[in-house]
Design goal:
The structure is a homodimer. In chain A, helix 3 packs across helix 4. Chain A has a 3-stranded antiparallel beta sheet with strand order 1-3-2. The first copy, chain A, has 2 domains: about 35 residues; about 80 residues, Arc Repressor Mutant, subunit A. Chain A has 6 helices and 3 strands, in the order αααβααββα. The interface between A and B is large, with 58 and 58 residues. The structure holds a DNA duplex (30 and 30 nucleotides).
Chain lengths: ~120, ~120
DNA sequence: TTATAATATGAATACCTATTCATATAATAA
DNA sequence: TTATTATATGAATAGGTATTCATATTATAA
């Protein structure tokens, strides 16, 4: 006997799913991106950088919290290639690694609007 | 003396940032969405549902792992309105709460492609 | 009603990770 | 060189959360 009353449809859905299946690696890449964006402290940093590059001091000013915490998160973002940095005199200036991130943020901001409306 | 050699530009960036600033609540909504999408087990469930509605049994079949774990994650997804469910005889059938989720997933899949290419 | 199938739930555990504190490094100014 | 400023880093801690196991619930079949 069948598991449920939608046996055929579900089996077909599962069949399509297998056809388009992501590899475990791709799944990990995708989830990792979302995980990075899922922390408010990191998101604040990312949002700050949408307005242009910033040195660490100004990032700290923008997001609040202590300098060490911000530095740790910048490291995480950099290791994962969401941001890049360059030294400029005694400062380190951070900016987005590529346009990719800001696109995603743009869409996320739309989501917030929808969620509230 | 100034903090860095880009004092003016950074101050202007921070000014624009304050102008467009998200509330803490909106930030939380946004991050929460990303956090939900950042777990591979949950993402597998979500990806499975992109092919159509499924009962729990078939979700378990699609994503692997044990039934209890899947049920717990379905609960999380439902509490956060990413999915909805309806009873159908002895089965519970899950599907996306709205079109929103599948849009985001579509974009994320693009990201994976870019990341690899 | 009793048995069984499908799903949900509670508690316990184990892992992960964000934050903090203290300190190190690196560049510049004196 | 020494002092100071800007940033990074290591270790420790605490809070969160995914998973598992056992069990409860709900619906149907016998």
């Amino acid at each position: 006997m069948d598991i449920c009353d939608h046996e055929r449809e579900h089996e077909e859905a599962l069949k399509r799913l297998r056809a388009t299946a992501l590899s475990e690696e791709d799944l990990a890449i995708m989830c990792n991106l979302f995980k990075l964006l899922g922390d408010p402290s990191r998101m604040k940093i990312i949002l700050a950088l949408t307005e242009g590059e910033l040195c660490v001091y100004h990032i700290v000013e923008a997001v609040g919290g202590n300098q060490s915490a911000v530095s740790h998160q910048l490291r995480v973002l950099k290791d994962n290639r969401l941001v890049k940095s360059r030294r400029d005199g005694k400062n380190i200036v951070y900016s987005f690694y590529d346009e990719h991130v800001s696109r995603i943020i743009g869409i996320a901001l739309e989501h917030v609007v929808c969620e509230k409306g």
